[in-house]
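PROTEIN DESIGN WORKSHEET
SECTION A - STRUCTURE
LENGTH: 80
TOKENS:
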């Protein structure tokens, strides 16, 4: 509740959790729940009005482990 910048919640569950109406009250209007894409048949399109979308944990893990490319300005301004 009151996590006004919360935009994403990632679940590893094969089924949707019980989400009560006030659990995510006053969060960011674009809040989205994500679940592993292989469980799409087990998840609803929304939970208490919050959209549910599939995601691929393996692809996300690979992307997160890669360091993003820095701009020239970022490289020049970095001083350890």
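SECTION B - SEQUENCE
RESIDUE ASSIGNMENT:
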């Amino acid at each position: 509740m009151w996590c006004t910048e919360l935009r994403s919640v990632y679940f590893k569950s094969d089924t949707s959790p019980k989400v009560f109406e006030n659990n995510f009250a006053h969060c960011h209007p674009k809040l989205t729940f994500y679940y592993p894409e292989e469980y799409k048949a087990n998840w609803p399109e929304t939970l208490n009005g919050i959209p549910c979308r599939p995601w691929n944990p393996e692809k996300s893990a690979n992307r997160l482990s890669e360091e993003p490319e820095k701009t020239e300005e970022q490289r020049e301004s970095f001083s350890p």
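SECTION C - NOTES
The first strand starts at residue 8 and ends at 10.
DSSP finds two helices and four strands in the chain.
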